[in-house]
Specification:
CATH superfamily of the largest domain in chain A: Alpha-helical ferredoxin
Distance between the termini of chain A: 61 Å
Number of strands of chain A: 7
Shape of chain C: globular
Chains: A alpha+beta (about 250), B alpha+beta (about 625), C mainly alpha (about 220)
CATH topology of the largest domain in chain A: Fumarate Reductase Iron-sulfur Protein, Chain B, domain 2
Distance between the termini of chain C: 59 Å
Oligomer: heterotrimer
Number of helices of chain A: 8
Helix content of chain A: 25-40%
CATH class of the largest domain in chain A: Mainly Alpha
Strand content of chain C: under 5%
Number of domains of chain A: 2
Largest sheet of chain C: none
Radius of gyration of chain C: 20 Å
Largest sheet of chain A: 5 strands, mixed
Number of strands of chain C: 0
Shape of chain A: elongated
Order of helices and strands of chain C: HHHHHHHHH
CATH architecture of the largest domain in chain A: Orthogonal Bundle
Helix content of chain C: over 70%
Structural class of chain A: alpha+beta
């Protein structure tokens, strides 16, 4: 098949960046999208040009490294899928495909399609944990957890931290990401002691990282490769209200 | 090279307690004076870095990914074993220990494996306390399943994402320590050499992948948790970035490399679809519970599967292993698939594939039941292949999955370089010649949370502190050699990309050092690899420079190390004249094609010592089995 | 920082303010529409209603001040959030294709601004009688009926009202559903009902308000 690619190229953080057009040969519809980019890069290398930089690692939809906005949609046209699991058969022969990086103040571009998502790590460092040292834990079956709670916590915990929610949100908000962690831990007995601190600190950090606020457009859950629901944002909102207004937290 | 495993004396069950008591401790006030480097942030690295920081040491942690949460442990699906015996079905520490030693085809160290089984239960406690959402029963207690042919239900799981959840648990502990300022986390930073001063590991040289800056890091001890080397085959279930560089560079500085030829091939992966293929995707082993594996009886039969009548199909696993049938262990199922494909009976365009057919199971149980059991896997399969496995049989083929070999370590997880510790898949210690399902997660976390923090303290407390500076000649020299190496790769200016060399190397390795090996093939590989490497040094093309974000340069460095490492693997495979676990030498099989182990000659760990331009030297650590009786595995 | 400080500075807190003040304004709309429906009961009914309102200045002014505060809180939080949100994406995408986001949900600032200008005009029109000074010159203090009939005979005024109400409906359409989500009322047990009722309410309000200029313009009320 033939496609025309319009790829965002940007040398470094401070470069202004621009689109460049490529018409790769030898594209097969059974290639994954990233394998198609591999082919483009091989062609560029043999032509003596700079290959396109993009983040990727596991290529099985779980590490959360790949991060492309394809034709205006984070992770491309297929729902519940990361770019690495997207295949070229999802595109028409002759289609023009725009490829852009995640665009958000909190995710500055490093090069081409690669962005710096360390803001997510700093949000986690602000409170996305249970303070328990290795060796200090009681027997795992001491605290029973209702199956429904464990299942719901797992729904939230499935987040791969890719940042598609930020990329798709018109406000570049990280609320779905933050809510996934807050929700997971607030559903489990282990998360209770630090519940109020966690939500306040993580939200504060989210704002310090220049992510916007939520306006409930639900675009985040639509592009989330793990289909995490905005129900968790609602829970985050409840957690915030109780932490800010009724908890003992300073 | 001196190989002292330092196994404590006394009965098996008391060895670890005894060792813990004998070990020296570092006083709390002194801990903050020590700096530890941990390279890699997968299950082993993240858990170790977090735990060491909790204890009060300053930790510098490194990963090449953009976040410590993305290490490839995250992709493990099935679960984690632990001898909790919550199901009351007769499990025990001893049984987990025994299964692991037997599953490893008697090529692992008894004392290490026993300790692994002992601490396994604590891992579950720790993970639950961190908020890992394991599967639960309606009563609120933890659920278990049996896995990988075990006769007890000892596997804990979080849907099909157990590795992800355990890693995020360890990552959360690590994040907490970063927030507290006890861990200095260096993301997108690759370790390119280990600095050894006066015979002790004292630091590393790294390259910042974002800026290309090459830097020296000083520490009192270095911990490598850098995973396996499955990507030497180019195509594997590993992530694209997984590489051998850290362990291989340590090997070049004097750390022994143990059993490099022990690699695990997983039987149920989606077959290769074209030359462009960059990675293989694993389909959970559980599919073999209901799927039947077959190929056409006739060679080169290109009919679509429904047109092949029942009597022209060969259900070869059921035929060869009537009692285990489709559930034969990983190594056996993989080898049988290769055999039928070698006979020209493989399916699909490439002829490298076999059918995994659910039509009988669907007829027997109904489509809904199958959907309930395997819906997510069928969905994933369809996403990748665009074929509906409810209607047509799945196509599967074996793929490289895990590497049991790794840097040699003693009972304390210390390599042959004092002060250099190796944990997780990067070391060789616990799985022998074959790893059982749901054991990799267990080992990574056991090492990181519960073993290394003790043994490392003992090293620190019993080693006099020398004043070493990053300005010393050793550091300066190594930094220069790393920089020279980058410039050398950049200056070749040939015509081929690093990936193209990697792919070619991988196909040599897969052909000659893959599922089945023989002397001729290995010799051939040992001729072809240096030829290809020579071309690499003449015809490599890396665009751009060192002082920038340069993914091609990263790749080139990794491929360069794979070249030398591939030779070491072939040498090890050549020398080990027996078949055991994942290592199958065609010359050493029984009349009916089963593996023939040679305990007399090879009941040992092969440890390779780097000798510069000369051939590496093979040492042996004899394996003593005091508790377990050596036996032949049979699945007929 | 204490709890209240967080409400006024953090985005989630600002959203609470936005949601609660918006809900108060929806309450006002319900009351306002109920009053206006008296138009259909004849001139006396609606004029009397206006007169009664004015008879209790304390109640009237308390309500008015309360509403003015709600309006200011709503605008303050809306503008502050919009500024933060715009800042979060300095570089726009070349191509944007939304999967789930609706038009109303993406245009709240715009629809809000239009509704605000409409409200100001509406006040100038009927409350302060600045815009139609000459037409309203001979009318009594409480002759609401005549004011409405006079105004909505104009196609310009009527269509401006109708257009503004449609935008108000869009604003409410997303605003009401958002109110529940923001305050954390989200559960699969009742999400469907909450969403349907919210949309129903916004449609009822819109139809009610739109019916007024239309009935007058087409001569059903005179």
């Amino acid at each position: 098949m033939r496609v025309t690619l319009k790829v965002w190229r940007q040398k470094s953080k401070d470069d202004t960046g621009r689109f460049e057009t490529y018409t790769p040969q030898n594209i097969s519809s059974s290639m994954s999208f990233l394998e198609m980019l591999d082919v483009v890069n091989e062609e560029l290398i043999t032509q003596g040009k700079d290959p396109i930089a993009f983040d990727h690692d596991c290529r099985e939809g779980i590490c959360g490294a790949c991060s492309l906005v394809i034709n205006g949609t984070a992770h491309g046209p297929q729902r519940g899928t990361t770019v690495c699991q997207l295949h070229m058969r999802s595109f028409r022969d002759g289609e023009e495909i725009y490829i852009e990086p995640w665009r958000a103040k909190g995710f500055p571009v490093i090069r081409d399609l690669v962005t710096d998502r360390s803001a997510f790590d700093r949000i986690m460092q602000a409170g996305g944990f249970v303070s328990v040292n290795a060796g200090g834990a009681q027997d795992a079956n001491c605290l029973p957890v209702p199956k429904q709670c464990a299942d719901k916590a797992m729904d939230a915990a499935a987040c791969i931290g890719c940042g598609a929610c930020v990329a798709a949100c018109k406000n570049a908000s990280a609320m779905l990401f933050v809510s996934a962690k807050v929700s997971q831990l607030s559903l489990l007995p282990q998360g209770q002691p630090e519940r109020a601190r966690r939500v306040l600190n993580m939200l504060r950090q989210m704002e310090n990282e220049s992510f916007g606020g939520c306006t409930n457009t639900l675009e985040c859950e639509a592009v989330c490769p793990k289909e995490i629901s905005v129900e968790h944002i609602a829970r985050l909102n409840r957690e915030f209200a109780s932490a800010a207004l009724v908890s003992e937290e300073g | 090279m001196k190989l002292d495993a330092k196994i404590p004396s006394g009965p098996l069950a008391e060895k670890w307690d005894r060792r813990k008591f004998e070990m020296k401790l570092v006083a709390p006030a002194n801990k903050r004076k020590y700096r530890i480097i941990v390279v890699g942030t997968g299950l082993a690295g993240a858990s170790a870095a977090a735990t060491l920081a909790e204890l009060g040491y300053f930790v510098d942690a490194f990963c090449f990914q953009d976040s410590s949460r993305r290490a490839h442990s995250i992709a493990a699906q099935g679960g984690i074993n632990a001898a909790k015996n919550y199901q009351g079905d007769g499990d025990s520490i001893y049984r987990l220990f025994y299964d692991t030693v037997k599953g490893g085809d008697f090529r692992s160290r008894e004392a290490n494996v026993y300790r692994l089984a002992q601490v396994s239960a604590q891992i579950i406690d720790q993970a639950v306390a961190q908020g890992v959402p394991f599967a639960r029963e309606y009563g609120g207690l933890l659920a278990n399943r049996s896995f990988g042919g075990a006769q007890v239900s000892r596997t804990f799981y979080a849907r099909g994402q157990t590795g992800q959840q355990l890693l995020l648990g360890a990552y959360s502990s690590l994040s907490r320590q970063i927030g507290l300022g006890m861990v200095n986390m260096h993301e997108r930073t690759e370790m390119l050499d280990v600095v050894v001063v006066n015979g002790r590991a004292k630091g590393i040289i790294t390259r910042n992948l974002k800026t290309g800056v090459i830097r020296r890091h000083l520490a009192d001890a270095v911990v490598l948790a850098t995973g396996g080397y499955g990507n030497v085959f180019y195509l594997s279930t590993n992530a694209i970035g997984c590489n051998v560089t850290a362990t291989f560079r340590a090997y070049r500085r004097g750390a022994g490399f143990a059993n490099p030829c022990f690699t695990q091939i997983h039987p149920t992966c989606i077959p290769v679809s074209g030359d462009y293929q960059s990675k293989l995707t694993l389909m959970s082993e559980s599919l073999r519970n209901d799927g039947r594996v077959w190929v056409p009886k006739k060679k080169g039969d290109k009919r679509i599967p429904v047109e092949i009548p029942e009597n022209e199909r060969d259900y070869y696993l059921e035929r060869k292993y009537p009692s285990f049938g489709n559930l034969a262990p990983r190594d056996i199922a993989s080898r049988s698939a290769k055999q039928v494909c070698d006979e020209g009976r493989g399916i699909g365009e490439s002829g490298l594939g076999v059918y995994l057919d659910f039509s009988d199971a669907i007829a027997r149980l109904g489509e809904d039941k199958i959907r309930e059991r395997y819906g997510n896997l069928f969905h994933m399969y369809q996403k990748i292949t665009d074929e509906n496995p409810y209607n047509v049989p799945m196509r599967i083929y074996p793929a490289v999955h895990y590497t049991m070999g790794g840097l040699w370590v003693d009972y304390d997880l210390q390599s042959t370089i004092p002060g250099l510790f190796v944990i997780g898949e990067a070391n060789f210690s616990d799985h022998g010649a074959n790893r059982l399902g749901a054991s990799a997660l267990m080992q990574g976390l056991a090492d990181g949370y519960f073993v290394l923090p003790y043994t490392l303290a003992n090293y620190l407390a019993s080693t006099p502190r020398e004043q070493v500076s990053v300005d010393s000649a050793e550091f300066a020299e190594l930094e220069k050699s790393v920089r020279d190496r980058m410039y050398r790769l950049l200056s070749i200016k040939g015509k081929r990309s690093p990936a193209s060399f990697h792919r070619e190397l991988g196909s040599i390795m897969w052909e000659h050092c893959g599922m089945a090996r023989n002397k001729d093939g290995l010799m051939k590989a040992l001729r072809k690899i240096p030829e290809l490497r020579e071309e690499f040094y003449k015809n490599l093309l890396v665009k751009g420079g060192n002082e920038e974000f340069n993914q091609q340069l990263e790749r080139a460095g990794r491929v360069e190390d794979y070249f030398e490492f591939a030779e070491l693997m072939c040498m090890d495979a050549l020398e080990r004249e027996e078949s055991c676990g994942g290592h199958f030498r065609e010359e050493f099989q029984t009349d009916d094609g089963e593996a023939r182990r040679n305990d007399e000659r090879f009941k040992h760990v092969a440890v390779w010592e780097y000798k510069g331009d000369e051939k590496p030297v093979r040492h042996q650590e004899a394996l003593e089995f005091e508790t377990v009786q050596l036996a032949t595995r049979s699945y007929k | 920082m204490n709890g209240l400080g967080r409400i006024f500075t953090m985005t989630v807190g600002l959203k609470f303010l936005m949601a609660v003040s918006g809900f108060i304004l929806v309450g006002f709309l319900v009351g306002h529409l109920s009053g206006n429906m008296l138009l259909y009961a004849g001139p006396d009914a609606i004029n009397q209603y206006a007169e009664v309102l004015k008879k209790f200045p304390v109640v009237l002014w308390t309500t008015r001040i309360f509403l003015i505060i709600a309006v200011f809180v709503h605008i303050y939080s809306g503008v502050k959030l919009s500024v933060l949100n715009k800042r979060a994406r300095p570089h726009a995408y070349a191509v944007t294709k939304r999967v789930k986001a609706t038009l109303p949900s993406q245009t709240m600032l715009l629809s809000g601004a239009v509704v605000l200008s409409f409200t100001l005009y509406h006040l100038a029109h009927f409350t302060f009688r600045w815009t139609h000074k000459e037409e309203f010159a001979g009318l009594g203090d409480f002759d609401v009926h005549a004011m409405m009939v006079l105004s909505f005979q104009s196609s310009v005024v009527s269509s401006f009202y109708v257009l503004s109400i449609v935008l108000l409906m869009m604003h409410l359409n997303h605003g009401l559903v958002s109110f529940f989500q923001t305050l954390g009322v989200n559960h699969s047990k009742y999400n469907g009902v909450v969403k349907s009722l919210s949309i129903l309410l916004s449609i009822i309000l819109a139809l009610g308000f739109i019916s007024l200029p239309i009935s007058i313009y087409f001569g059903f009320v005179s």
